[in-house]
Amino acid sequence: MQVYVVFVIAMEIAMRMSAYGISNDKKRLVLHSDEDTAAELIHLKQLVQGSTYIRWGRTTCDGTNATLVYAGYMGGSNYNSIGNSAGGNYLCLSSSPQWDYSTTTVENSIFITGVEYRFAPHQDSDLATFLGQNLNGIQAPCAVCLLPSATSLMIPGRTDCYTGWNKEYSGYIVTGYPGEAHATEYVCLDRRPEAIVSTGNREAINQMYFVEAHCQSGLECPPYENGRELACVVCSIAIY
């Protein structure tokens, strides 16, 4: 019975490893003893573990061993009306949506909109220094990236990772318009963001802004400095 259970687990792991593109020579199970079996199973489970992260503002995954799952559009809630805004988090919407049963004859009053680069009061020339180009009023893309056999995290207030971690990308902490009727989240916008082609309509209903350190409200200063825009970095580390 024990060997059968091990066989079933091994088959499941092998299928998952194939989905992750792990080579056949790493699928071998050593069944000489219970200790060997347990050690091999732990190793195989670690191989098939992984994580995903969203690269806000870009359509590619250029980090360490990262592969693109899909690229899409940064989406969120209409900032101007509580009644039209049920969610506070940003979404990376697929660029090739599919639909289950739906209707256009019933109004749900809960809307998903595109998210625009909008960094007032920074001037256009200032934005080019921050982001490499002036993208004010342009909608932002996003990319979902897969890290096999690794985990990731976003570190606010840093441009580089700590020792032992690999940099996936760095940028600036951004969030929604400060006058919004609902809360949004803080995300790490790539420091060299791209634009969605064929946009620039400046709808101004879902906007992102830089986030600054504010020392008069209990933030430790130093090391933080009042009025400076917060940087961020997304880092990864192998888990085996």
What can you tell me about this protein's structure?
By secondary structure, the protein is of the alpha+beta class. It folds into two domains: 2-48, no CATH class; 51-238, Noncollagenous (NC1) domain of collagen IV (Beta Complex), CATH 2.170.240. Helices cover 17% and strands 29% of the residues.
Features:
alpha+beta; 17% helix; five-stranded antiparallel beta sheet; six-stranded mixed beta sheet; 240 residues; Ca-dependent_lectin; globular; 29% strand
Q: Which structural class best describes the helix and strand composition?
A: alpha+beta
Low-confidence stretches: 1-6
Q: Helix share of residues?
A: 10-25%
What is the total number of structural domains? 2
Q: What fraction of the residues are assigned to beta strands by DSSP? A: 25-35%
Radius of gyration: 22 Å
Per the CATH scheme, the topology name of the largest domain is Noncollagenous (NC1) domain of collagen IV
Question: What does the secondary structure layout of this molecule look like, with pairings?
Answer:
Blueprint: H1 2-19, H2 34-48, E1 50-56, E2 67-77, E3 91-94, E4 112-114, E5 116-117, H3 124-131, E6 141-148, E7 150-156, E8 166-176, E9 187-190, E10 207-210, E11 231-238
Parallel strand pairs: 5-10
Antiparallel strand pairs: 1-6, 2-3, 2-4, 2-6, 7-11, 8-9, 8-10, 8-11
Helix pairs in contact: 1-2
Give the gist of this structure:
With 240 residues, the chain is of the alpha+beta class. It contains three helices and eleven strands.
